[in-house]
Specification:
The chain is of the alpha/beta class. It contains 17 helices and 13 strands. Helices cover about 40% and strands about 15% of the residues. It is globular and about 70 Å long. It binds adenosine-5'-triphosphate and magnesium ion.
Length: about 400
């Protein structure tokens, strides 16, 4: 990943403007459509074009390359069901957008919760060993559910929750904003999975009527494009859940995902979840159908929703709750030698006594605490401290620990 200052002819003001609009690397700039960059207040058409071209030049994107050199580094996240993994070609793929649509109760949130955990598994167990951004537009995220899924996979629930960066979303422009912000997580926290559950709920309720359709599709287009670019830049997996509407086709009716062609064409994989044929009230059996995929045959399978996420069977083993938290906690308790040495905060460059005191009021008393802190959150809590500053402290703290 190249920083924006590697782009020829760029100045500090332009870097700031781009960063404020979610474009924080040369790759991001090179992959952005000219119109979006030109629309950033203070840039303008000519500058946008020049910067994008220079970014592409810097990254060698203005040359054709022999196809054998294309970097196709696809990785997979297990869905919790081996059948579902199989029809997906191995699991949830990185670098791509996957849309999962279906009627209510069909298991979309269950899948989102499951992969928010399995993404954190080690690579040899079907994960990416990476954190997750969870954009929750329906307020259906459940910590308890995540804890059960974590236990099912033998992971520490507390650790797992601490690596799911959750944002509760209240409006479509908030959703756009947090999609942009998710890029920062990919850049600074190694996030490799972005979940939007669900993509259309807020857009559907805010843009009502045919008159607003064009504007809605414009907003949607920029969300999809932004996500697609992030997926490619950071080799990140993206799950978009979507609702369905009943579509009449002459005498027949069927469920179709909402959002129209922009979603349909913007997503690489489209998977439909069905409850039909099973009593959705009494059975937790569901069907998944591959509707569209670049290199997968049409296929379908059955899976189950369980109290601990998506699975192949109706019941999954969750280690006994009683005492488990305790056992897991001890299991994960660092041995003395693993622990970061207890270095005073004032040893970090730029942290004086006064700042150390402010940090302590936020529960940050050691260098280790500082390293585990979220720069954005911390900067919002302590006045006069930017998140950039916190990141600088963290870099210096890392150097301190290594020396
Ligand atoms: N703890 C649990 N144990 C077993 N089944 C559960 C549990 N919690 C939820 N379910 C079942 O999971 C289904 C809900 O699935 P989910 O929330 O994933 O659906 P969804 O597709 O996201 O629906 P919506 O469109 O309403 O968001 C329901 O049928 C519910 O009965
Ligand atoms: Mg849901």
């Amino acid at each position: 990943m190249a920083d924006l200052d590697k782009v020829k002819g760029i100045n500090a003001r332009q870097i700031k403007l781009l960063q404020d609009n979610g474009i924080s690397t040369a790759e991001a700039l090179a992959m952005s459509p000219g119109m979006i960059v030109a629309n950033i207040d203070g840039l303008g058409d000519k500058t946008a074009k020049k910067l994008i071209w220079n970014a592409r030049n810097a990254l060698g994107m203005t040359e054709f390359i022999p196809a054998e050199k294309i970097d196709e580094n696809v990785e997979y996240i297990t869905t919790g069901s081996s059948e579902l993994n199989k029809i997906l070609g191995g699991g949830f793929q990185t670098g791509k957008l996957t849309e999962v649509y279906g009627p209510f109760k069909s298991g979309k949130t269950a899948l989102a919760s499951t992969i928010a955990v399995t993404c954190q598994l080690p690579i040899n167990k079907g994960g990416l060993n990476a954190s997750v951004a969870y954009i929750d537009t329906e307020n259906t995220f459940s910590k308890e559910k995540i804890k059960r899924i974590a236990k099912r996979f033998g992971l520490n629930p507390k650790e797992i929750l601490s690596h799911i960066y959750h944002a509760r979303i209240y409006s479509s422009d908030h959703q756009s904003q947090m999609i942009q912000k998710a890029e920062t997580l990919c850049k600074t926290r190694g996030t490799r999975l972005i979940i939007v559950d669900s993509l259309m709920a807020l857009l559907r309720s805010e843009y009502v009527g045919i008159g607003k359709l064009a504007v809605r599709q414009g907003v949607l287009n920029s969300m999809i494009h932004g996500l697609s670019r992030i997926a490619e830049t950071y080799n990140c997996a993206v799950l978009l859940t979507n609702q369905v509407a009943t579509k009449m086709m002459g005498m027949f009716s069927g469920n179709d995902a909402i959002g129209g062609n922009i979603v349909a064409h913007g997503c690489h994989f489209r998977v439909m979840f069905k409850t039909k044929g099973f009593s959705s009230n009494s059975s937790l059996k569901r069907r998944a159908v591959i509707v569209d995929a670049p290199d997968l045959p049409p296929d379908e399978c059955e899976f189950f929703i369980t109290s601990a996420g998506v699975a192949d069977t109706e019941k999954v083993e969750i280690p006994d709750d009683k005492g488990l938290d305790f056992e897991v906690e001890t299991l994960y308790e660092e041995s003395e030698s693993d622990k970061a040495p207890n270095i005073a905060l004032t040893c970090v460059k730029g942290i004086g006594k006064g700042t150390a005191e402010s940090l302590e009021t936020e529960g940050i008393t050691t260098v280790d605490d500082l390293l585990n802190a979220d720069p954005e959150r911390l900067s919002s809590k302590i006045s006069g401290i930017s998140s950039k500053k916190v990141s600088e402290w963290q870099s210096d703290a890392r150097v301190l620990l290594e020396t």
